[in-house]
Amino acid sequence: MSLYGKGFMIWQLARCENGNGVEVARVARAAGLSHVLIKIADGPYTYNVDRTTRVDLVPPVVQELKKNRIQAWGWHYVYGSNPVGEAQIAAQRVNELGLDGYVIDAEVEYKQPGREQAAKAFMAELRKRIPNTPVALCSYRFPVLHPQLPWKAFLDYCDYNMPQVYWQAAHNPADQLRRCVNEFKNLAPYRPIMPTGPVYSAGGWVPTESEMVEFLDAVREHNLSSVNFFAWDYGRKGLIALWNKIAAYPHPIGPQPADIPEQYFSLLNANKPAAIANLYTDDAVHITASKTVQGKEAIQTWHKNFLTNSFPNATFEITSVSGTGSTRSFTWKGVSPSRGKIENGNDTIGLIDGKIAYHYKYFKIT
User: Fold this and answer.
1) Mean pLDDT in the chain?
2) Which of 31, 230, 254, 273 is deepest in the core (most CB within 10 A)?
3) Fold of 5-248
4) pTM for this one?
5) 260-362, what's its fold?
């Protein structure tokens, strides 16, 4: 299930509209939220279950959200000391609650030595139990600063990336989001980014209303389909001005056009050379190590030959994307059952009015 629009994370459900599902759904609808993400587990244990009565507070809220056509996702703080147990409780909660998606919150504990194997065990068990549920990773905003975290082990099995773009102790949300997006575009595997912004205070710091608008503007500028905020608990109480600013912001709910590299690879995987040619200007140039062709018809012929003869029945995957404005650079890989692999694809394209004007393509089939 695709995710678009604005969402809020709930930490302690009893502190959010007193845990009343009808009120949570009403407030979410009034704020224009497309989804709400509720904490459902902590480590190998359930969360948002009343400690005294053992009543699960989550089901009636999920029920009311769904009645109002608002997606209900669950999030889960994981530690890595019991990865199989954590995956089992995650799958149990997703299945019994009928959730639309699941979010992994992996932070400092997963930077300890040996946690890559824990992440692999967790993800393998999780995907065995919920193979069709959308899964996202919600962790640090700058992966370059946290190389110890097993990013690939998590992202290999995830559908989305929801980095915590918390500009705590600073006042430059757009710059931080830009850096976040660029770093993840250079980290394989790339997953669609749906950033999580801060609605909390810390040590005297609190984001301002103007910063919240700047952050949301930057989300739209990067054509990111969805944005989340942590947390409802704070926004509806001490930080109501921030809540209201987010509620008033018209972030679109609905699919946004994919960027040119994503469109191109989607059509490659669909084996549609004519549609691929329509991505180019009339006099576009396509350059490879062995041949240069010009014009839509010639570009269509090249792609038809490539997909039919040179590398038939292939599947392709983008591994990184960089560039904005009129240029894009991207790396990619592909597999053809009869012809082998491409593991070093490296392309650069130039755009005019949203169409490809030139395309430098490098690859080697092995």
Assistant:
1) 95
2) 230
3) TIM Barrel (3.20.20)
4) 0.72
5) Nuclear Transport Factor 2; Chain: A, (3.10.450)
